[in-house]
Amino acid sequence: MEKLKALVPETLKRRILASTADDLLSTSSSLLDFFDPLPLFHRIVGELTDSESGLCSKDKKVALESKLKGNECFSRGDFPDAVQFYSKALRFAPAGVDEMGKDLVSVLYVNRAFAFYKMGLLVECLRDSSRALSNSPGYIKAWFRRGKANASLGNHEDALRDLTISMKLEFSLSGKRQIENEMKMILDRSKEKTSSLQKSGSLQTSDECRLDIPDEPCQIKLQCVSTTTKGRGLTTLADIPEASLVHEEDPYAAIILKHCRESHCHFCFNELPMDSLPCPSCLIPLYCSQLCQVQASGDKMYDTAIDGSFIYKFSDDLQKYMSDVVSVKFSSSCSKNFTEHGHECGGLHWPLVLPSEVVLAGRVLAKYIEQQRPSSLNLSLRGLWDLCHNYAQLPPESKLEFHVYSIVLMRCLQHSYGSEFAISGETIAQLVILLSQIRANSMAIVRMTSFDAIGSLRQHPKFSPAADASTISMKQMKVGQAVYLAGSMFNHSCQPNIHAYFVSRTLYVRATEYLARGSELELSYGPQVGQLDCKDRQQFLEDHYSFSCKCSGCSQLNLSDLVLNSYRCVKMNCYGVVLDSHVVEYENQKLHSFLGPPGMINSNLKVDKCRIDSISKIARYVLENNHLVKPGCCLNCGTERDLESLHSAINEADICFRGLQDAFASSEVPVNALQDALRSLDLLRRTIHPLNKRLAEMEDSLAQAFCLVGKLQTALDHCQKSIKILEKLYDPNHIAIGNELLKLASIQLSFEDSTASDTLNRVAAIFLRYYGSHANKIFPCLQLLKEEALRNQ
Ligand SMILES: C[S@@+](CC[C@H](N)C(=O)[O-])C[C@H]1O[C@@H](n2cnc3c(N)ncnc32)[C@H](O)[C@@H]1O
Question: Which residue numbers delimit the SET domain (predicted)?
């Protein structure tokens, strides 16, 4: 793409870089006219759309090589590696290829099923056997393998049916004898005991994606209104209690992020199980279940029906059982869904190489085209979305990229849709706007990383939260990017009153505080008060969303913004705040609105969300000092400090802090790194304000380090100190505090401290407020820790 950008003539480039939305028709037409006769442009589009030369098409040779390697691993008892190779082979195996009289994909599923069986992963074995049967209903080995898995799982009735079918299909006498023996064993076993698993019916063996059960229906009515500073926004038509679900929505379009392609399902974005499924027609996507696979790529593979090709006639009962096993049943609403990966499939290269937001735009366009069919041949995106965009505020480089990508994407889509739509300057201009809308409105779908870590730990019989104290930390990981049309109406606030989260690909929004009728509902697009200071939040929003934030946190004084990056007063007995020059600039702006017009001072001090009276003290000082906050000057007593010397102390501490972080990567903390870190902490305490966030981070790192060296009481002290600071920067009931308290609880549990249950109760209350009934699903570790705490009591 860089090559294409470099070719754009200087004059046209300058016009594009300086363009506004009104110029787009002209700039897009000029660029289209420039690219269309260029051989290089056509070569690039050709490479992106040629399924033969692309990197994404299936390859029988690679599939067979991988299968062979899988077989070798299997023969020497290395089953996990065998699974890896069979999975690779499945990814590369083209559909409908015959391998020694059998369908290659089915053979690979059966081989992988056997490896799972050997590893004791019976549910995975069962699912893979069924997948083989969906492809090849008459595959004897698959029925046999399924029967064995069902028998081991205690599903004796099903096991006998599976084996009866394989017996009837089997020709060889030795084969029949082997099946007969198996059936005899199952009959004996089923007489001995009825499996507890079968009785409880608790085992999930179906190939449905484990979609989470939605919680209480969302009944809150919201209204779209026009705000004075932020465009449209959503307000509530009724009072909303804290923790209520206020919105639930599936995406218009969604895409997985590149770094998660190998680890998460490309449809629901959950972590991939070991028995993941590839796309039937190309190499890129992996899915957690057939349901996700079908929803994303279409039901090309799974319309199998039992035909009359079987020599044996089965009883009605068995015939029905076979049909149930081989035909994957999905709800009718799912089969009607637009298959968002369908048009990119078949080995095309462009979905792999173009940036995520461009591929997302491709999915949006394809969905729109499908919806317009068969009426519209003349693609017009005018009526597509009523979403805002900030094209004029985009960085100039992004404007050029959006132009180039729009033309390339349109040509790639033309490859799938042929002459169905004509490309013109106008459609390119509309696509540039669409990309700008995606930039302003799309959301990152996130997962809590500890969810995954604990999920796998939990399967370990020896998992102990106590022993794994330092592993329990919550980090958000971006896995996907999606557009939610109604959800796009929520404005941002750095002091949000609602919380957005995702279960699979569904967006849920919950009120995190009581909201009176008529209040505006605002979520955080990323940065929040307590996390970053005003300057850094504004910078983030400018860089990522191209707007200058006008939320309450950025326009009204609050304690966090004043102290988060501040220094302490040179007088050791004074706890006044000393600000750096860049912080002063932003705080002075807020101070003006805080003070209001002349004459309103003092009597009308409006201090939003300030829970600490020091704001008033600061205000009083500022009022007495000509309404100006000065860099390096204590806001309590007015004493000046040399900022330069403070900067070098902080740099020194930062180096030490990074050393400690590096040590965590190797899970070993050398004694000297610990001593250096303690010295730095001391230096920081003398240099920066006691509520500066750096101190909290240093205390937190030391807590982790002392956990690693087994000094748990010291770790606990540091963890508590970190939380104390964070509680002042955020709110004590903020989700960030919930995450920190979870760490504290795991340390408390490590030495059977009975206060762990109180800590966990606080965590549960916070999580409930942010995640409602989804809390346990999103944080399974909470339940584990609670059980551990109960055992300790
Ligand atoms: C997802 S949209 C929200 C709905 C939008 N206000 C509208 O009218 O369609 C995001 C855009 O809303 C505006 N916006 C949202 N929060 C804002 C804030 N705190 N301050 C200023 N503008 C904001 C910005 O233009 C931003 O790009």
Answer: 216-526
Burial 640-670 (b: 16+ CB within 10 A, else e): ebeeeebeebbebbeebbebbeebeeeeebe
Mean pLDDT by 10 residues, the chain (793 residues): 89 96 96 94 88 78 96 96 97 87 92 96 95 89 94 90 90 88 85 51 48 60 92 94 93 95 95 93 90 80 53 75 75 64 82 93 90 66 84 95 96 80 88 96 87 39 45 78 96 96 94 94 95 94 93 86 89 82 80 54 37 54 61 83 84 84 77 87 90 93 88 93 94 92 88 86 94 87 80 72
CB atoms within 10 A of CB 393: 15
Rounded to two decimals, the pTM is 0.88
Asked whether 528 lines ligand 1 (CB < 6 A), one says: no
Counting from 1 in the atom list of ligand 1, the atom nearest the Cα of 494 is: 19
254 class by beta-carbon count within 10 Å (0-12 exposed, 13-18 middle, 19+ buried): buried
Q: Is 489 in the pocket of ligand 1 (CB under 6 A)?
A: yes
For ligand 1, whether the C-beta of 391 sits within 6 Å is no
CA of 551 to the centre of ligand 1 (A): 10
Q: In what helix (H) or strand (E) does residue 102 lie, and over which residues does it extend?
A: strand 102-103
Helical H segments across 313-423, by residue range: 316-326, 332-336, 350-353, 356-372, 396-417
**Rounded to an integer, what distance in angstroms lies between the CA atom of residue 237 and that of residue 221?**
6
> How remote is the CA of residue 490 from the centroid of ligand 1, in Å?
8
Could you tell me if the CB of 232 is within 6 A of ligand 1? yes
Res 627: pLDDT: 52
Task: Please state the φ and ψ torsions of residue 538, each to the nearest 5 degrees.
Answer: -60, -40
ipTM of the complex: 0.99
Say if CB 268 and CB 251 are below 8 A apart. Answer: no
Query: Helix or strand or coil: residue 575?
Result: coil
User: What DSSP string runs through 626-693?
Assistant: TT---TTBBTTT--B--HHHHHHHHHHHHHHHHHHHHHHHTT---HHHHHHHHHHHHHHHHHB-TT-H
Q: Cβ neighbours of residue 506 under 8 Å, at least 6 residues apart? A: 214, 248, 249, 250
Which is the closest atom of ligand 1 to the Cα of 493? 19
CA atoms of 87 and 274, how far apart (whole Å): 9
> Which residue do the tokens 């549910």 mark?
123
The Å distance, Cα 730 to ligand 1 centre, comes to: 23
Query: Is-contact 262 288, C-beta < 8 A?
Result: no
Nearest-atom number in ligand 1 for the CA of 441 is 1
SS3 labels along 483-532: ECCCHHHCEECCCCCEEEEEECCEEEEEECCCECCCCEEEECCCCCECCE
Structure confidence at residue 606 (pLDDT): 36
Length of the chain: 793
Rg (C-alpha) for the chain, rounded Å, is 31
- Is the C-beta atom of 441 inside 6 A of ligand 1? yes
596 C-alpha vs ligand 1 centroid, how far in Å?
A: 25
Structure tokens at 407: 């033309």
Domains and CATH numbers, the chain: 1-37+254-301+339-453 (no CATH), 60-191 (1.25.40.10), 219-251+484-552 (2.170.270.10), 556-634 (no CATH), 643-792 (1.25.40.10)
